[in-house]
Task: structure prediction
Amino acid sequence: MLDVVTAAALGAQLSGFRYDLTTEDSIQRDLAFALARRGFRDAEREVRLSATDRLDFLVGGVAIEVKLNGSVGELLRQLSRYAAYERVRELLVVTARLQLSDLPNRLHDKPLACLVLFGSIFG
Amino acid sequence: MSRRRRMLQRSLFKQRPPSVPGVNKHGPPGVPGVNRLVLVSSTPSEPAATSAPEVPPAPVRTYGTLRLKAGRWELAAEPHVMIAAKRVFAQASGRSYKAIHLSNNFETCRDLEWFLGRFPLEVKDAAALRAGALAHRDQQTLVHLLLSGQAPLVDVALALPPRDYQRTAAQMLMAVRRMILGDDLGVGKTVSAICPLVMGGTTPALIVTATHLVAQWRRELERFAPGLLVHVIGKSTPYDYMKGGRHPDVLLATYHKLNGWAETLGRLVRYVVFDECQELRSGPKREDEADLQGSARGSLKCAAAAHLSSQADYVLGLSATPFYNRGGELYWVMDAIKPGSLGTREEFHHAHCTGAEPKLSLKEPAAFGCMLRDAGLMLRRTREDVGQEMPAVTVVPHTVASDHRAFDDVATRASELARLVLDKAAAGQDRFRASGDLDQMLRQATGLAKAPYVADFVQLLLEDDEPVVLFGWHKSVYDVWRERLSVFAPAFYTGDETPKQKDDAARAFIAGDTKLLIVSLRSGSGLDGLQRVCRTCVFGELDWSPGVHEQCQGRIDRPGQERRVVSYYLLSESGSDPVVADVLGVKRAQIEGVRNPHRSDDLVERIDASGEHIKRLAERYLEKVGRTAA
Result:
């Protein structure tokens, strides 16, 4: 495991699994397994940043947001809020929707990566 | 409350029998046939089957009535009981609390019986209710015994011995009479379906399959049951097919011919097999469907299938992908195989679905899958279950470039159609037609835009000496591939070829005469043999249904395959691919839930190091052409 993990590297590590795409919850459950399998022992789930903001996962400063529904606009607003927190160093979006992957590379000067669960959509 | 009153109340409770009167408390719990509930409320004069005569049966208060009315159960009771009934019978529709109506099937009878234990009702048709509930119990026991391996397997006298799990499937069919066999691709569903043919009471039989699979079925029948007289139905209208005064044991027909033959064969055949039963997913023609399109519309073949089913003694549906899109399709498939087993469409909608007709999705796909198994409506074994483990498929999604001219060509017409689709004032029928045309046009444009790049990619694979099965959909796209890959003399297995030409194409590919087989996304289901020579498939165009991709991949990922299969999905970033990929994700979750409800908590790890795969391929290519990758 790397000492300082980047969002892009984390995404690559998590790509080799077949996730249950039924709901955001089912993907989160599988992500928790995948993180454990890849040895990310410091992964925290459901991290509350404020009364309104809660991260799905926080792994060594990388905030993971699992998204199945909604629009890119909504997602960007949400991510912008997260990026404002000091604890969040980089951002990773995990989605099964290609349309939600059309995101900028940086947000509030923090790197943003996206993992589309292709392996689970096909085959 | 005074002390005396409390004591009085306690003693009153003591006197009450602890459970529902009529339950034989001395029978072993949970053993059907012994621990049976006698419907005290319905037959007050009948002595309760209790062996504790010292406790006189308490008078039972009834809350309403339960009767069979026009073939359905009508439950009418006091308001609070109706509220409870509506909670228990989620399939009941309507807002009225006066009465609910439920389809009369074994499952409902059993549930009603259970409900009566809590709220006794006056039952007018107690015998029917008891019979239905009993049948449900018996069936459940049988299914349990068979699946837990406690029932002895009977001998099945085929020319080549069937495997145990194939005998189990045959035996289960003989017990439940109607079911879907959803075994994984390549597990051997065909042989499971042939077994009953020699088990007695099943001939003459009718096997309905896709046009291109008739020859394959015939070969399998000859291999496993050479003693059976087989006739392939050749025309859409009935004719005399008797041979030397003997009626064939097995008739082989295609789905297209079903409508013309349903009346004639309905009276004759005792066992019907619907191969690739997802063909029945559109359901029979309905009154309100004029506005609908494509598979949302009912079809004559489904009505014909339902008719045949209702007349036969045994009906078996075969498919590892019993529906292609949303879970609502499974209702029609199941209803054709075992009419009424899921109640009416409306009941099914209320109990299990979300969304609006005709695109119903299952609320809880996994729960629904469990229910199908428990009710003996579906049997499914994975390759792992039958000890047939094969390496997991390597899925490589890869973005290819696309030529924007293809989109420019259709831009004007596409925008016209798009405006019509979004125009709320336009007639429903026009809008639906426009959306179908638009989908067709954009998918074709997407296919064409990436076609040259797909061809280049396939060329890389072929030059690496790797035989390839390439999947596509549009004729114009095939034309581009044909031209660009002409040096490899591709063989075609698409909608344009006759069954014989297709058979020849597959044989040429298997014999090694060509290294490239171009197959239509929707015409390859069931095709066998490619796995012996090929381990690479490429999706040059996408389908809307994950089941279709799986069927395609299953052509090479099946028993006989000795190497790891690699599946390349070539996607374009523009056009319809991004949208299609999104929809595929939603649909995938539906079918996965139904098929594998008892998913283990452990994740399936896949080797899809996408970038790596392509990089290696490029390196090997460059080495081959005499340059080194810098």
